[in-house]
Design goal:
This protein is of the alpha+beta class and 203 residues long. Helices cover 24% and strands 27% of the residues. The protein has an 8-stranded mixed β-barrel.
Length: 203
Amino acid sequence: MQIVRERRPLCRCLAWPVVASALLGLGVTPEVQAERQDGERPSLMALLEPVQPQEEEPVATLILERTERRIASTGDPIWDLRLEVPGEPARRYDAVSGRANRQTADRDRMGSRAPLPAGTYSVGPVEPLADGAYPELGPVWISIEPTFTTGRRVLGIHQDPSAGQLNTQSGTLGCIGLVDRNDMLELSDLITQTDTKRLVVKN
């Protein structure tokens, strides 16, 4: 009888490390396991085959890419701005970004007058502008904010009324400037209708 009584505590001492090791092997610590007492204990399959995170559903997105085309009169590179809405054909618009002679300048430096840096931006609301209040911004302003670290600020999408004109104002200081006024108005309506909040500058 004396031998039996001495072995029971030893068995109890050995049993707990074995259970703890098994729980750690499944990625569950004893502390976490102890917290899951009220019907929250996961099944073995849930531990061995965790649910993979689902991919985000596609949303309306603006995409900006440089093309090989140029405005003949000023040499401004033409950028392709397209609105991609899931399940619908893409809408495309000719745009400029930066000055023609500043296309290779530092795109992350404030005041460089270079095109937008590549990356993802959040798109703000459409803001109508008073006629004549901002002659180089056209009828509408749509702010865009970088979601990455850059020195560029006060950026937006607007029309460039001077695009292609020999008045030293063709192009932008870094914003996206649509060449055509009607394109700007159409795009503004579509951004509002589709609740577009994302812009990706590809190159």
